[in-house]
Amino acid sequence: MQGLDSSLGSVAEDFVEHVWGFLSIKEGLRSRLRSQTSKEREDHIQQATNLSLTYHFLTPLTNMVVEKPEVLADGTMAAAPTIRPAADEAASPADTDDEQPQKLRGQISSLSNKIGKDERRPVTKSIVVSKTSADGDPHFVVEFPLSKLTVCFNINGEPGHVLRLVSDHKYSGVTVNGKLIGAPAPPGSHKQLRTYFSSIAIVADHPRRTYIEVTPNKVILDGRDRIVLPCHTTMAVDSDMLSVAISGRSNVTVTVGGNISFVILLHQYKNPAPYQRDHLGFYIANSTGLSHSCHGLLGQFLHEEVGVAQLPAQGDSNPSVFLKVKDRSVPVVRKSRRIYSGRQNVDCWFARNNAEKLIDGHYEDYVTSHMFDTGEWPNGTNKV
């Protein structure tokens, strides 16, 4: 009789503990909706997720996966496969038994591992993208496949400025903005200050607003739920129209709707010099889903054709070369640029003076108010 009482007492304690966990999860979900800042929201999501995993509750933050066992020829069940991290990928704290008990794996998992029906999947590190990009200081490169020409220019921005790289909000719903960070110039440089992209935001407004923000250390995916993914690991997740694939410490590929994709290179320094900053490079991999009305520092050239004209030399001077873009003539010189983290050299026609006459309007027209600003191009021009 005493043993029965002890057993009933244990069951009662377990029941009370699970009720407490259930009510705490509900309160955490409510608090998530009432939170005023991103930090508060992330804290509530993390707390509710941990409780869901601890007490085996299926919530909006977790998924249940049912695995069909393999039946051998003799009628016995095959042993469950053991999944080990790749040789080049260190186990993160979230993968240890302390954080997620072994008995939970394959049953209920956090949405940071699985989003909806889309599971985390392996990502290859090899990438093939176009030359159209903004990387380094930042150096802009635009490839014109129809004209068989490549054009390049520099943008000397100010630290803290957010630049509009791609603007197609009205049609495809896609906007890409990049924030600049400052760094002192290396010894012997003609510049006093250099700027690099410290974060890049990709906003997709169709069918509903979703965004991805990439920094050298993390990726924030805000769709059905807000998820923070580290850049040192390799994974891929989907949310609404956006898909993100991280190749650890190498690059992040963002795909919108299957016909628009961008590749963001991660430039990180183990022992940075005083003039070095962790930064990002932005490359357009697939622009077929962007409209002919697309704009931005890179977007305005995606559906254009250009030509090169040479004027005869005057006296002892060299012949002048001009780039014909839209209805403008832009003086250019021949240069070479290194892209893809220095793995490839590109010969291009370089436009000086902050891309004056090459881009529509002026530099200030591409400075936005914040990272998620999707305002339309003000239709400025610099016709001559």
Automatic annotation (TrEMBL):
Q: Which Pfam families match?
A: ITI_HC_C
| Boundaries of every Inter-alpha-trypsin inhibitor heavy chain C-terminal domain copy | 172-353
InterPro entries, sorted: ITI_HC_C, ITIH
Highest taxon of the source?
A: Eukaryota
Q: Where is the segment annotated Disordered?
A: 85-106
Q: What is this protein called?
A: Inter-alpha-trypsin inhibitor heavy chain C-terminal domain-containing protein
Organism equals Xenoophorus captivus
